[in-house]
């Protein structure tokens, strides 16, 4: 009978994998993947999705990135493009439709003209929540148009890469061709004497890193971002060697000369603005 009078146990809702996503609309709390601290989601939103305990940088979506980076009302997106299914890959159209409904984006790249602290640029953001930020024909075409327009208007380009999916396997060789296509557009922009700032966010991998993302005149990264072609596990299995601690993190890349700077998210807008001012 004593058990009848015991109060009900109190629980706290925690979603362990939420740190691998960008938005937390349905949950009140999030567990940090860096230190394990449980954080109230409204506090995360106020902090720019940084852990107050360890500074871990949670992934953010393109809309959140815009709000943190560009002057209010200055972003004008390019005309949308629609992905096709050139190989008739089973279920690809449905996957794209679901990604559109989930994110509100037309594809993984949000591209347009913007101003950062009053300085105009062409801005592109790869959103991981859209099929892992993978690069298909639409992403490649949007990025190519971004560099071509920037060349024509003599504007700098700023790209925030967060594509852990690399090239999109559902489009096969059409996706792989975007690596050469975007790299060529970057080259033309560079030969015109114009600035390209590449910002690597977590994770920037595969074909995204192996093409335009690694070709910036200035390459920045957020703390802790995973950067490279193949993931650490695959590299270790292929080479059959034990990898050094922190392999393929932004900190490791900076130490080995692959980055120019690691910039915490709260300082990113000011840092990029200063670079744009210096290179006008």
Folded structure, characterized:
- The chain is of the alpha/beta class and 280 residues long.
- The protein has two domains: 9-58, no CATH class; 60-278, 2-enoyl-CoA Hydratase, Chain A, domain 1, CATH 3.90.226.
- Helix content is 34%, strand content 14%.
- It is built from nine helices and nine strands.
- It has helices at residues 41-46, 62-69, 92-103, 137-153, 172-191, 206-209, 232-239, 250-255, 265-278, and strands at residues 29-31, 38-40, 76-77, 109-116, 119-126, 157-161, 196-200, 218-221, 261-262.
- Helix 4 runs parallel beside helix 5 (172-191).
- It is globular and about 45 Å long.
- The model is unreliable at 1-25 (pLDDT under 50).
């Amino acid at each position: 009978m004593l058990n009848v009078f015991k109060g009900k146990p109190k629980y706290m809702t925690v979603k362990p994998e939420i740190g691998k996503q960008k938005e937390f609309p349905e949950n009140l709390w999030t567990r940090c993947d860096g230190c394990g601290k449980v954080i109230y989601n409204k506090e995360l939103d106020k902090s720019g999705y940084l852990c107050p305990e360890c500074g871990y940088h949670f992934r953010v979506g393109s809309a959140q990135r815009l709000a943190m980076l560009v002057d209010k009302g200055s972003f004008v997106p390019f005309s949308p493009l629609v992905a096709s299914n050139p190989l008739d890959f089973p279920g690809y159209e449905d996957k794209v439709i679901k990604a559109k409904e989930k994110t509100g984006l037309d594809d993984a790249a949000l591209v347009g003209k913007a101003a950062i602290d009053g300085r105009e640029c062409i801005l592109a953001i790869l959103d991981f929540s859209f099929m892992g930020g993978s690069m298909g024909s639409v992403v490649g075409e949007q990025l190519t148009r971004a560099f071509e327009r920037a060349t024509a208007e003599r504007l700098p380009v700023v790209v925030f890469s967060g594509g852990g999916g690399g090239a999109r396997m559902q489009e096969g060789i059409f996706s792989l061709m975007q690596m050469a296509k975007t790299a060529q557009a970057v080259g033309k922009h560079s030969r015109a004497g114009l600035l390209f700032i590449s910002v690597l966010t977590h994770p920037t991998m595969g074909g995204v890193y192996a093409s335009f993302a690694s070709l910036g005149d200035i390459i920045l990264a957020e703390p802790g971002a995973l950067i490279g072609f193949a993931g650490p596990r695959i590299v270790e299995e292929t080479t059959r060697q034990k990898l050094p601690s922190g392999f393929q993190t932004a900190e490791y890349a900076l130490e080995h000369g692959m980055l120019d700077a690691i910039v915490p998210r709260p300082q990113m807008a000011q840092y990029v603005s200063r670079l744009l001012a210096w290179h006008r």
